[in-house]
Write the C-alpha cells for this entry.
Amino acid sequence: RKALAYCIDYDTIINRIWPGARQSLGPVDMDTPGHNPNLFQYKQDLTKAEEELKQSPYYEKLDQYPIELHWVSQVPDFEKIALMLQANAAKLGITVEVVKVPWLSVIDLMAQIETTPHAQTLFVAPHYAEAGSMLESRYHSRSCGTWEQGEWLQSPEIDAMIEDAITTIDQKERFQKYYAVQEKIVELSPSIFVLDQPEKSAYRTDYVYWPTADASAKGEQVNQVMGYCYYFRDFKVFPEKAKQPYTPFKP
C-alpha cells in the first residue's frame, strides 16, 4: 500500500489534471475542523516505493498478484489518475488492471468484500463539519460494505479511538484525539490520499452575493459538508447592480 502511495505523480495531478486542487494531507480535508496539519505527506518516489515492496513477502512474485483498480465512469479525470498509477506501478513490476465502472455498480460491488476491487477512486465529504465525521464514515468497521469504506478496515483499536474521540465533549481534547486517529491511519496507509478537490461554480458577482464564495475569496474557512455552500436562503440578489446586458429570468 505504501509502495503504491509513492507511485502517484501528485504534482502532475494537481497542476495538470485538477488545477486549483491541493495535495491531500491525510484522510481529512485540510479545511475541515479537527484536521491534523502535521501528518506525513507522500511524494512520488519510485526508489522508496521499491524499498517498501522489498519488505513484502510477495516481492519476488508480484506478477502473480495483479491489482484491480476501478474508476467511476462519470468522472473521466479518474481514468487519467488510474492510468498514471498503472504506468508507474509497472516500472516496479506491479500489474494494475484499470476498469471503468458506473457509479451504481461501484455501490453494488462494494457491498460485499468478495466483489470489492483492490482499489477504487472516490471523493468523500464530511457529513458534519468536523474530522470525526470523515474518520467514522471512512474507517470505522461499521462502515464496511458501504461505498465510503472499500478498504474493509476492521481494526478494534481504530474503532475504539474514533468512538472515544467523537464522544469527547471538550473541543480541544476531541481535536487532539482526532489528530491521533489520523496519524494512526496515515501510518497504516489503507488508502492513498491524493487531492482535496476544489469546487468551482460560475455565478454573477456583479449582483449576486454568495456567502460561501465571498468567504472563500477572503481566505476564510467555509463549511465542507456537501451542499451547504448552496444554502440559498443566505444568498442575496441585487438586480439593480447587474451590468448590462442583463436579461431577467422569467419563469
Q: What stands out?
A: The mean pLDDT is 95. Residues 2-196 form a domain with the Dipeptide-binding Protein; domain 3 fold (CATH 3.10.105.10). The longest strand covers residues 67-72.
